[in-house]
Amino acid sequence: MFYLQGETECVRTLAVLASREGRVASTASELHDAYIDFVVGIGGEELRPSVRGEKFCFDGSRVERLIAKHQREAAPNDLPVTFRQTPVSAGEEVLAKIRVAMDRLAQVDPGLYRIFDLVIHTVFYHRSQNSGGGSISSAPGVIWCAAKRTWSKIDLEEFLVHELTHNLLFLDERRYEHYRDPEALMAPENFPVSAVLGIPRPLDRAFHSLVVATEVLCFRLRNGVSDTPVVHPTTPVLLESCFRTARSIREVIERVDIVKPRFLDVMDLAEVRLRDLRAAQGAERRRTETAAAPAPGEALPV
Questions:
Q1: What pTM, to 2 d.p., does this model score?
Q2: Res 300: pLDDT
Q3: How far is CA 171 from CA 165, 176, 250, in A?
Q4: Among 105, 109, 121, which Cα is nearest to 31's?
Q5: Are 233 and 194 in contact (CB under 8 A)?
Q6: Cβ(93)–Cβ(126) under 8 Å?
Q7: In this model, does residue 11 exceed pLDDT 80?
Q8: What does the pLDDT look like over 34-73, one tens digit per residue?
Q9: CA angle 166-43-112, nearest 5°?
């Protein structure tokens, strides 16, 4: 959502949602406090950081309450997850790497980092058997991290962009509403194909996957990509998956009156950006092929 909408719109959404009795915060400090009160009103006191401004949570009891939220939300989900016993030392090791990845975001894309710093108030670690972490709508601004040792520095940066995008979409949904009939989202005949996992999923989750994947691709275009990405597929694969998911979503929403205008606005923005990304990829491929081609009259290598 950052690359699709820009910093100004992201801040405006936060300010509108966190307004108190119609009064919008006038300073960054007021906005931070109002935002924390807003998310606590949604998810409970466990969403409130123990120390103001400290994003990393090492408090075992608070971590257990936060991971319990993920467990409850995963229960009716289409992708249940399992959790493993987590020593404190493992959390310290992984979150130290996450801190480095956050510092890297601040260097390579200051605007993106400002939004991350504003929206994400809590990052915690808990091991999982089958997941790398995630975000849930009942805990806005919280990122559960279950990163693996095989993840590179760039993988960790992409993970942060991925989870930030989920959180920005949660907030956008609360501000504008995206769906006319939430119950219809769970009807299997209305499942599009996910851009990241490549399987049929409920419309809201497939839509999240499309926007998240688009934002990751935009991040790669600006800041580079690992030669062997782990968290997300390679760029050509991910880009084509996005187009497939976009077509799948269009088929559903043209058949069923299930989404509101804001959904369509974001969908349009994503598809425009994807076409731009495909054009940029094609231009890069042509430059590479031209650079590798022999000069006129030059013998081809044997």
A1: 0.92
A2: 45
A3: 10, 9, 23
A4: 121
A5: no
A6: no
A7: yes
A8: 999 999 999 999 999 988 889 999 999 999 999 999 888 7
A9: 30
